[in-house]
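DM from R.C. (forwarded with permission)

"hey, sorry to bug you on a friday — could you get me a structure for this? deadline for the figure draft is monday and I only need the backbone to look sensible"
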Amino acid sequence: MIADPTVTQGKYGKGQHPNSQENLKKGRWKKGQSGNPSGHAGLRLHLWTHIKVYALMPVDELKALDPKTLSMVQLTARDYVLKMTKGDWQRIKEALDRDEGKVTERLEVDQETRVTVERL
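My reply, with the result:
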């Protein structure tokens, strides 16, 4: 049987019970407080920190790290850097773009509608 949305159940409508309203007030953020203070961005910075550390290590030392003792973030960073050492150019490009910024291109167009592309 499908409930009629125009009919309220009991004394209070959906979400209108005083206890429900009180729970909503408890969960509100204070003025100026972030809605996601320990969210995903911190994890990304943490991952990048490990990638930078591992990228400076000798390959033999990096391979010698025991995966059983590493956190998931450390293991991910280790594998990322190991793939870079094997010539995975996509990972190398991502790392350089992240650390140095993306390469810009300058286009010059003359009156004869020829286009010259110069990589900086």
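R.C.: lifesaver. Residues 65 and 78 are 9 Å apart (CA to CA).
me: no worries. The longest helix spans residues 40-55.
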